[in-house]
Specification:
The complex is a heterodimer of chains A (about 250) and B (about 120). With about 250 residues, chain A is of the alpha+beta class. Chain A folds into three domains: about 35 residues; about 80 residues, 2-Layer Sandwich (Alpha-Beta Plaits), CATH 3.30.70.100; about 110 residues, Cytochrome Bc1 Complex, Chain D, domain 2, CATH 1.10.760.10. In chain A, strands 2-3-1-4 form a four-stranded antiparallel beta sheet, with helices on one face. Chain B contains no helices and nine strands. In chain B, strands 6-5-8-9 form a four-stranded antiparallel beta sheet, with no helix packed on it. Chain B has a three-stranded antiparallel beta sheet with strand order 1-2-7, with no helix packed on it. The chains are: A alpha+beta (about 250), B mainly beta (about 120). At the A-B interface, helix 4 of A face strand 3, strand 4, strand 5 and strand 6 of B.
C-alpha cells in the first residue's frame, strides 16, 4: 500500500469522526441555550394604557414574563415620542404573535385592580366638531366680541423678527416648540396639544387682530401673555410667528 | 369614575305656569379623564399619558327648535356631572339637552313643558 493510500485512509477516518461528533455538539449547544439557538427572537414595542399607579409598571412586566415566554427589555415611561409609555418585549416569533401578547396584556390587572390595554390610534382622540356643534357655535357667537380688527403697527423687519424670536424662545417654546410645531417639552402634559404655529406662516394682516387677542388673553391652558409681554413685544412675537415654516 | 356611560336624565318641576322661571336639572353618568397619570414617583415625579382622554365637550340646550344655550367644557369637568340651569316657560314645547363628548358621540334627553292652570 502506498503512503498516499495510507494518508487518504487516515483522512477518511478523521472525517468520519468529525461528522459523528458535529451533530452531537449541535445538540449539546441547543440544550445549553435552552432551545433559544433555533428561536427567531424579535423585539416589538407596545404603547400601554393604564399605567396609572406607581406599582403598575413593575406589576405589568412581572405578570407578562410570568404568563408568557417573553422578556421585557424596556419600559420607557416618559420619553416616548407619542407620550404613551412604551413597552419593549422580546419574544420568539415562531411561538408567539403580537395579538397573543396584546390579549395577555389586556388580561392582566394591576395591584389596584385596574386593567392595562395596548393603545391603538392617535395619542389624543379629539373628534372634529359635529355639524350640530358648529351650528351652535355659529348661532351663539364663535368669536369673542373683543377680537378687534387690529393691524400690526410694527413693520416686519429683521430687527423686529429677532426681538420676536427672543421672546418666543423664552416664553412660547416650552409648549409650542422651537419650530412652532406644537410639540414642546411641556406639550405632553397638556390635555389639548398646543397649536402648530407654522400655519400662520406668511399670512396677511387680516389675522393680526386675532393673534394679538389670543396672545394677550390666552385660552384654555395658555396663559394671558398680556400681563407679561408689552404691547410692542407681542407684535414682535407675531412678526416672528409669521416666519415659522412647517418642519420637514 | 363611572364604570360605563348611561343615558342622561332630566328633572323639571311638576307644576309650571306660563312665564315661570323654572330649574332644569340634568344628570349624565359619563367618565372624565385628563388622560394623565404620574410616573417615576421616586426620582422625578412627572405626568405622562396613562389612559385615553375622555370628557363631555359640549352640552346644547334646545327649547322646542330654538337653541337657547351651549355649555362648552374641558377635561376639568367632573365625572358624572349634574348641570342645573334656569329657563323661562314661554311656550309649551319640549326642552331637549344634547351632550357631545370629545370622541364626537352624542346623547340626548328631553322633557315636555306643559303649563298648569
Amino acid at each position: 500500500m502506498s503512503s498516499y493510500d495510507n494518508l487518504s485512509t487516515k483522512l477518511a477516518g478523521y472525517m468520519r469522526r468529525v461528522f459523528l461528533v458535529l451533530p452531537l455538539l449541535f445538540v449539546l449547544a441547543i440544550a445549553a441555550t435552552g432551545g433559544n439557538a433555533l428561536a427567531a427572537l424579535t423585539v416589538e414595542k407596545f404603547e400601554i394604557e393604564g399605567l396609572i399607579s406607581p406599582a403598575s409598571p413593575k406589576a405589568l412586566s412581572e405578570a407578562l414574563e410570568k404568563q408568557l415566554q417573553v422578556k421585557v427589555v424596556d419600559l420607557n415611561l416618559k420619553n416616548s415620542s407619542s407620550g404613551w409609555p412604551l413597552l419593549s418585549v422580546e419574544f420568539d416569533s415562531d411561538q408567539l404573535t403580537r395579538d397573543v401578547i396584546e390579549q395577555t396584556i389586556a388580561s392582566i390587572e394591576d395591584p389596584a385592580g385596574h386593567t392595562y390595554r395596548v393603545h391603538q390610534g392617535p395619542a389624543v382622540i379629539s373628534a372634529p366638531f359635529t355639524d350640530e356643534e358648529k351650528a351652535a357655535m355659529a348661532a351663539l357667537g364663535p368669536a369673542p366680541p373683543n377680537v378687534q380688527a387690529l393691524t400690526n403697527p410694527i413693520e416686519s423687519t429683521g430687527a423686529s423678527i429677532a426681538r420676536g424670536k427672543e421672546h418666543y424662545d423664552k416664553y412660547c417654546t416650552t409648549c409650542h416648540g422651537l419650530q412652532g410645531d406644537g410639540n414642546g417639552p411641556a406639550a405632553h402634559g397638556i390635555t389639548i396639544f398646543p397649536r402648530q404655529l407654522w400655519v400662520w406662516n406668511n399670512t396677511d394682516s387680516s389675522v393680526d387682530g386675532y393673534l394679538f387677542w389670543m396672545i394677550t388673553e390666552g385660552r384654555s391652558d395658555m396663559p394671558p401673555w398680556g400681563v407679561i409681554l408689552l404691547e410692542n413685544q407681542r407684535w414682535d412675537v407675531i412678526n416672528y410667528i409669521k416666519t415659522l415654516t412647517k418642519p420637514e | 369614575m363611572a364604570a360605563r356611560i348611561k343615558p342622561p336624565r332630566m328633572r323639571i318641576p311638576r307644576k309650571i305656569k306660563k312665564d315661570d322661571i323654572f330649574k332644569v336639572k340634568v344628570r349624565f353618568e359619563h367618565p372624565s379623564f385628563t388622560g394623565l397619570g404620574m410616573v417615576d414617583t421616586e426620582t422625578m415625579p412627572t405626568f405622562n399619558r396613562a389612559v385615553p382622554v375622555t370628557f363631555i365637550r359640549n352640552m346644547l340646550v334646545y327649547y322646542g327648535e330654538e337653541l337657547v344655550t351651549r355649555f362648552s367644557m374641558t377635561s376639568a369637568i367632573a365625572d358624572d356631572p349634574m348641570f342645573t340651569f334656569k329657563l323661562k316657560a314661554v311656550r309649551e314645547e319640549p326642552v331637549t339637552v344634547a351632550f357631545i363628548n370629545n370622541e364626537g358621540e352624542r346623547w340626548e334627553v328631553s322633557a315636555d313643558i306643559k303649563f298648569t292652570a
